[in-house]
Amino acid sequence: MDSALVLIILMYVLSALLPLLGLWGLYRTATRDAREYSAATYGGPGQPNDEPDMPTIDQSAVLLQIAHRATEGRPQAAVADFVYIGLGVFLGAAASIWTLLLPA
């Protein structure tokens, strides 16, 4: 096999996997926050929320934790997730252009 062909195949494989990795990271963050918030919905076991329109104290604490993570720790991870997505798209485009330039 030609080394250029192997490199093109590798670029196509990475162009498929990197966006999935980035989307998985974004999905994992979103579902973790939603799970934490819904777990605090009733204020703990045996304590129903009497006013469903008002957040419980536990929900307020979870919202503060989510906001703290969003401003302090998670932006770098979200940027990395978007870099994975962008790099995958770029590799796919580069591999496509390269295949057009290969001699037949």
Question: What this model shows, in words?
Answer:
By secondary structure, the chain is mainly α. The protein is 78% helix and 0% strand. The longest helix is centred in the first third of the chain and has 37 residues, at 3-39. The model has no long low-confidence stretch (mean pLDDT 83).
Characterize the overall form: rod-shaped
The number of helical elements comes to 3
Structural class, by secondary structure, is mainly alpha
Please tell me the overall pLDDT.
83
**Radius of gyration from the alpha-carbon trace, in angstroms:** 22 Å
User: Major sheet: size, sense and barrel closure?
Assistant: none
Order of helices and strands: HHH
Q: How much β-strand is present in the residues?
A: under 5%
Oligomeric composition of the shown chains? single chain
Spans of 5+ residues with little confidence (pLDDT < 50)?
Answer: none
The total strand number stands at 0
Distance separating the two termini:
15 Å
Question: What is this structure, in a nutshell?
Answer:
It contains 3 helices and no strands. With 104 residues, the chain is mainly alpha-helical. The two termini are 15 Å apart.
Entry keywords:
78% helix, 104 residues, mainly alpha, 3 helices
SSE topology sketch:
Layout: H1 3-39, H2 57-72, H3 74-101
